[in-house]
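fyi for ur records
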Amino acid sequence: MIRPIEWYLQPRGWPDRMAVYVEGAVDLFVAAAEGALAEAGLRGCDVDAIVTVSSTGIATPSLEALAMGRLGFRCDAVRVPVFGLGCAGGATGLALAARLARAEPGAVVLLVCVELCSLAFRMDEPSKADIVATALFGDGAAACILRAGETGFAQVAGVGEHTWPDTLDIMGWRIDPEGLGVIFARSIPPFARKKLRPAMDRMLAAQGLGVPDIDRFVCHPGGMKVIEALEGALDLGQGALDHERSVLADHGNMSAPTVLFVLDRARREGMAPRSVLTALGPGFTASTVTLLAA
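which gave:
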């Protein structure tokens, strides 16, 4: 949590919550970006474009602008703030950053995902969805560097996205005077178990691939039941999504950054020859990025 538990037990409205969002999200943005840049042997002044993904608060100017001075970004760096992707943000943001890097070979693209899910904790009208979300979600940030070329631990070989019609009510935020309120109008695990495989087959077919061609799925762990549904839908076998379970146990569901935490564990263990990073989010949407080990 970005604040001590006592903070959440007091009545809070939009001004309080967004002030904490801006302060906390910028600090997490800077920490995540500094880590990614240092590991890549780069500095803020080397960055040509910044993709910022966040859906748990509103900041205008956006987070990368607020962090510019602390990170030393150049004044001509391209800023791409992205809002509303929710849990799919890590995968969709990675796909967008890859497209930007591919469009301008040599450019350094920084992707940063920041979410402060705890700011949606509400004491005024706790619903079942609010209680589940409070128990499941956490705060966090993740960042990575993309650049066209042969360096790095993986190559983005393809991307895909599928939005199901008439599913706007599955997941999202409602806007209340007291702050954001979570929307879980339908159960996600049975939906994923039934609907994900046909969508995944179509996304992979567009790349000339099928599920059997994938050596490892790197999935957003929306919750234990979601993990089990993904294993069933993709015929992975129970327990196959081990990194997903460990990230969920250690950090909770941090929304957009979570799948990048899973990717980090996969790359530290050693990337499979061909992986598919995937996440589900509001829309209701599945997003995928196909990765080849370097």
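The first strand starts at residue 49 and ends at 53. thats all i got for now
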